[in-house]
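Weekly puzzle thread! Below is a chain. First person to post its structure in token form gets bragging rights.
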Amino acid sequence: MGKTNVILKQHIENLGDAGDLVSVSAGYARNFLLPKNLCILAGKAELAALEVHKEKIRKAAEKEKENLQIKAGKISELLLPVSVKVGQNGKIFGSVTSMHIVDLLVSHDISLDKKQIHIETPLREIGEYSLSVNLGHGIHSTLRIQIVAEDAK
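Winning reply:
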């Protein structure tokens, strides 16, 4: 179980920021970081080039952080209507999941991963709810959704 030195291309929670030289297990680097293009292996040439490219990497990370803050602002201003089939007493069939919400956000030009939306309790009733959204880089936002009854056709 060896360790491998890698240079991060972007911020990764609990690991480091873009441009950081970190030591990770070889399996983590080989199976996760490298296939997702999140890092490069740190050889002698890469370490020398790191100093040259460090500022470029940091600027790209700052720009990404600014874009995430803009996205967080859009999300916090939004009241997303979610229409569902409803039974008696305002109970909905099934529950509203993070995947439903992600699909609806696409129509508002907001792309998220379902793992970024945190739903504390299952959404099984008509009403308004506030959900926490983790955009990464320590940026969080609150998404308000309004679950409404689907019109009977």
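Puzzle host: Confirmed. Bonus trivia for everyone else. The chain has two domains: 3-64, 78-149.
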